[in-house]
Amino acid sequence: MIVPKNKEIKPKIGFIGSDRQNILEDLDFAIRNKFDYYEIQGLGEKFDFKPKVIRDAKGISENNNISLNLHAMQFLPISSLIPEVSEGALKFAKKEIILAKKVGVKQITIHSGERDRPNNENMVAKNFEILIKNLKEIVKLGRKYGIKIGLENSFGPDRLCRKPEDLLRVVNSVKSLGITFDSGHSNIASLDPVKYFKKVKKFVINIHFHDNDGKTDQHAVPGKGNINFKGLLKECKDSNYFGPFILELFPHSNVLKGREIFLNLWNQV
To answer: DSSP string spanning 109-168?
Structure first.
């Protein structure tokens, strides 16, 4: 959310669920604790919802002014050189968009996939071609349903969009594609989260907020790792980015701790 400079405004904060089976319980937690956003997680065995759950989730979120995001499943690499795999991933991504529309989701986080042959530049270039081609279709369908797509930065050495340059390469090739900036992922990739954000901020539509030691994806409460969150939030304010900030913390008790720490830092910058 972008607002005019020098206008005092509260940041929009939410959290991500542990898996899709707990969506109604998570929404109850969001209501009781007055969160602005809830991001449905892409984990768990339940890929779809029963019609009643869809109706309830949509009604609850709308009646309580909670904006919904969706963290897309990532069990298939959408950039794979194997047609049956990348085409299957694309097909499933489209199903995710249709599901998101039913539930009332306005924003989806999606993943880039891996380099099939990390040391073969020609093969990696083909991975990028397939990724860009498929994302164009995904964004087009998302646009039809009024849903924004945010490509998340990766952290594994064989992932396509680990570095900001690679992430920008993709979003500059796919009109209307945004970025979900994950603070923890950038830190594990041995890249300074503040510098990373500065490079990609023009396209950021969502921030996943969690800490780590720079080695593993710990999803730690801010302050338990080594990320400079004060610097990151200052850059967000200076860039007029006020949310969503999605606390990717578990369990719910850590979500509440994380929000308290977030607001304390936010008020300092």
So the answer is: EE---B-SSTT-HHHHHHHHHHHHHHHHHHHHHHHHTT-EEEEEP--STTBTT-SHHHHH
DSSP run (H or E) holding 92: helix 83-103
pLDDT tens across 200-235, in order?
Answer: 999 999 999 999 999 999 999 999 999 999 999 999
Domain ranges in the chain are 13-208
Sign of the CA dihedral running 240, 17, 42, 153: positive
Cα 249 to Cα 1: distance, rounded to the nearest angstrom: 22
pTM over 0.70: yes
Which tokens is 74 given? 């990532």
For the segment(s) 13-208, the CATH number from 3.40.50.720, 2.40.50.140, 3.20.20.150, 3.90.79.10 is 3.20.20.150
Helices (H), 145-243: 164-171, 183-188, 193-200, 229-238
Report pLDDT digits (tens) over 162-184: 999 999 999 999 999 999 999 99
